[in-house]
């Protein structure tokens, strides 16, 4: 069994991004990212802080806009429209989830697609499903980068993705389909998930339920990508896979933490830098 070491790869990528950012800065160009956080959800605050720290490490300017939980839909849209107009800004990220009274779809659609470094605008997701270049959501992009780094071929493989969210499962399915894999996407209403996982060469799980994937669900030699993140009462961070029992029977597996998480953050940095380069070429 080989560990898919996202932490080391993300570190390497971060260093090369920092070099590129440094080169741009000698020409007076500083990549910059606006992060919008609505309310004070502790998990969202943690994610926002992690993103800000990573930006700082590579020299990307990140500007946090903290908005009250009761902000109106219209005020949030007006704010995003102002950021859209700011020529010096390369990326706009709206931290999810948003409060219940806010229409998330409408908010994500108000981000200008050229600055949509999260890849959640339908113009970008549409491009992804059409196999055309656009911004790809950071988690699926990070997973694809990790697989490529370890020379894991997707063509002809059976892939089972568990979790069908717009930010992980669905875009990951599209990316892997574009690489000629055969995809099953399972979710809370799927009957007999084991039927799909047992037949899979690659299992990707993004649910947020510790030990959802057990040894009896996995084919010998399968590749496991564990995307789930749960903080146990003990403070320990775990994924969705019963790592202790599953790891010995698979060929590759991502650890949690240290697998997909760091690749997600570095992919956001890469998208932001990409957006800066696009701006220079416009
Ligand atoms: P979500 O709540 O939007 O979607 C969860 C999906 O899991 C849904 O499709 C749902 O139908 C499915 N599901 C729920 N219970 C299930 C069950 N018992 N069996 C099968 N499917 C089930 O969640 P999300 O935003 O996609 O995040 C999922 C997990 O991935 C969370 O733990 C989150 O913290 C983690 N995550 C990690 C990263 C990272 O960088 N590592 C990034 C994003 C999300």
From TrEMBL:
Look up the record and name the pathway of this protein: One-carbon metabolism; tetrahydrofolate interconversion
Keywords carried by this UniProt record: Amino-acid biosynthesis, Histidine biosynthesis, Hydrolase, Methionine biosynthesis, Multifunctional enzyme, NADP, One-carbon metabolism, Oxidoreductase, Purine biosynthesis
Start and end residues of each Tetrahydrofolate dehydrogenase/cyclohydrolase catalytic domain:
4-118
- Report which reactions are catalysed by this protein: (6R)-5,10-methylene-5,6,7,8-tetrahydrofolate + NADP(+) = (6R)-5,10-methenyltetrahydrofolate + NADPH; (6R)-5,10-methenyltetrahydrofolate + H2O = (6R)-10-formyltetrahydrofolate + H(+)
Q: Which GO terms describe its molecular function?
A: methenyltetrahydrofolate cyclohydrolase activity; methylenetetrahydrofolate dehydrogenase (NADP+) activity
Q: What is its EC number?
A: 1.5.1.5, 3.5.4.9
Biological processes annotated in GO: L-histidine biosynthetic process; methionine biosynthetic process; purine nucleotide biosynthetic process; tetrahydrofolate interconversion
Concerning InterPro entries, the annotation shows: Aminoacid_DH-like_N_sf, NAD(P)-bd_dom_sf, THF_DH/CycHdrlase, THF_DH/CycHdrlase_cat_dom, THF_DH/CycHdrlase_CS, THF_DH/CycHdrlase_NAD-bd_dom
Q: In this record, what's one Pfam family?
A: THF_DHG_CYH_C
Gene Ontology cellular component terms for the protein in this record: cytosol
The residues listed in the UniProt record as binding NADP(+), with positions renumbered to this chain, are: 163-165, 188, 229
Any idea where the Tetrahydrofolate dehydrogenase/cyclohydrolase NAD(P)-binding domain is?
A: 137-278
Instruction: Fetch the SUPFAM superfamilies from UniProt.
Output: Aminoacid dehydrogenase-like, N-terminal domain, NAD(P)-binding Rossmann-fold domains
Task: Report the protein's function.
Answer: Catalyzes the oxidation of 5,10-methylenetetrahydrofolate to 5,10-methenyltetrahydrofolate and then the hydrolysis of 5,10-methenyltetrahydrofolate to 10-formyltetrahydrofolate.
PANTHER family cross-referenced by the UniProt entry: C-1-TETRAHYDROFOLATE SYNTHASE, CYTOPLASMIC (PTHR48099:SF5), C-1-TETRAHYDROFOLATE SYNTHASE, CYTOPLASMIC-RELATED (PTHR48099)
The record's note on quaternary structure and interaction partners says: Homodimer.
Q: Which HAMAP family match?
A: THF_DHG_CYH
* Family note: Belongs to the tetrahydrofolate dehydrogenase/cyclohydrolase family.
UniProt name for this protein: Bifunctional protein FolD
Can you name the source organism?
Helicobacter didelphidarum
């Amino acid at each position: 069994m080989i560990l898919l070491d996202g932490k080391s790869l993300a570190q390497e990528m971060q260093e090369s991004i920092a070099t590129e950012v440094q080169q741009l800065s000698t020409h007076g160009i500083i990549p910059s990212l606006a992060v919008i956080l609505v309310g004070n959800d502790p998990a969202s605050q943690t994610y926002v802080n992690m993103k800000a720290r990573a930006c700082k490490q590579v020299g990307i300017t990140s500007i946090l806009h903290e908005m009250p939980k009761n902000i109106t839909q219209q005020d949030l849209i007006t704010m995003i429209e102002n950021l859209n107009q700011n020529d010096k800004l390369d990326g706009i990220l709206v931290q999810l989830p948003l409060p219940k009274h806010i229409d998330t779809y409408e908010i994500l659609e108000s981000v200008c697609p050229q600055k949509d470094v999260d890849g959640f605008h339908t113009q970008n997701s549409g491009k992804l499903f059409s196999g055309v270049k656009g911004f790809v959501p950071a988690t699926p992009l990070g997973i694809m980068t990790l697989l490529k780094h370890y020379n894991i071929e997707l063509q002809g493989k059976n892939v089972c993705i568990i979790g069908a969210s717009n930010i992980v499962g669905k875009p990951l399915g599209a990316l892997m389909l574009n690489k000629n894999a055969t995809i099953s996407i399972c979710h809370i209403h799927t009957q007999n998930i084991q039927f799909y996982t047992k037949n899979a060469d690659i299992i990707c799980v993004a649910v947020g339920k510790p030990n959802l994937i057990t040894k009896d669900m996995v084919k010998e030699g399968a590749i496991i990508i564990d995307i789930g993140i749960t903080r146990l009462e003990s403070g320990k961070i775990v994924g969705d896979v019963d790592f202790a029992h599953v790891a010995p029977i698979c060929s590759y597996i991502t650890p949690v933490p240290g697998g997909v998480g760091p690749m997600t953050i570095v992919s956001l940095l890469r998208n932001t830098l990409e957006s800066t380069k696009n701006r220079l070429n416009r």
